[in-house]
């Protein structure tokens, strides 16, 4: 469950927030006037989430290529890979 704090804690409790995000591996939401304004997370979690986003994007491209009939044979794939390796 994400933690929610008011904006005043950001400056006062940086270390607590950083520790929470690193130890719990989840973001902390910072509010202002009762409305969510920021999501703070550890850089490790950020990198994981960005990596997943890139993977999902690549998978979507591949699925669309399959749907559109933009496929290649195994032989063409290996020929292409071998040409890349030979460079």
Structure description:
The protein is an alpha+beta fold and 87 residues long. 62% of the residues lie in helices and 17% in strands. The chain has a 3-stranded mixed β-sheet with strand order 1-2-3. The longest helix has 25 residues, at 43-67. The protein is elongated, with a radius of gyration of 22 Å. The mean pLDDT is 89.
Short description:
The protein has about 90 residues and is α+β, with helices and mostly antiparallel strands. It contains 4 helices and 3 strands. The chain starts with a strand and ends with a helix.
How many DSSP E strands?
3
Q: Provide the succession of SSEs.
A: EHHEEHH
Structural class category: alpha+beta
Low-confidence stretches: none
**Beta strand %:** 15-25%
Distance separating the two termini: 50 Å
Major sheet summary line: 3 strands, mixed
Helix content: 55-70%
- Main-sheet strand order equals 1-2-3
Average of per-residue pLDDT values: 89
- Helices, by number, come to 4
Q: What is the gyration radius calculated from CA atoms? A: 22 Å
Give the overall shape, derived from the CA principal axes.
elongated
